[in-house]
Amino acid sequence: MGFQVSNVVNAIVYAAIGIVIFALSFLVLDKATPYNLWKEIVQEHNVALAILLGAMSLGICVIIAAAVH
C-alpha cells in the first residue's frame, strides 16, 4: 500500500513542477512579445495567434514532460 501512495505523491509533485515551469515559460513568452497575448486572443479574436500559441504551448509541454520524466 505504501508503494502506491508514494507513486501518487510523486506524480502530483512532478505534475505541479511541470505546471509551474509551463506557467513561468508562458509569462516569459508573453513578456518577450511586443503586445499582450491575452488581449490579442480574447478581445481582438486573433485566431492565427491563438493557433501559434497553442502549438508553442504543446511544444513547451512536450519538452517539460521529457525533462521531468
From TrEMBL:
Ranges annotated as spanning the membrane: 7-27, 47-68
Subcellular location field: Cell membrane
Pfam families registered for this protein in UniProt: DUF350
Entry membrane topology: Multi-pass membrane protein
Main location: membrane
Keyword Cell membrane: yes
Keyword Cell membrane among UniProt keywords: yes
GO CC annotations on file: plasma membrane
Keyword set, alphabetical order: Cell membrane, Membrane, Transmembrane, Transmembrane helix
InterPro entries: DUF350
Family indicated by similarity: Belongs to the UPF0719 family.
Record's protein name: DUF350 domain-containing protein
Organism expressing this protein natively: Occallatibacter riparius
Lineage: Bacteria, Pseudomonadati, Acidobacteriota, Terriglobia, Terriglobales
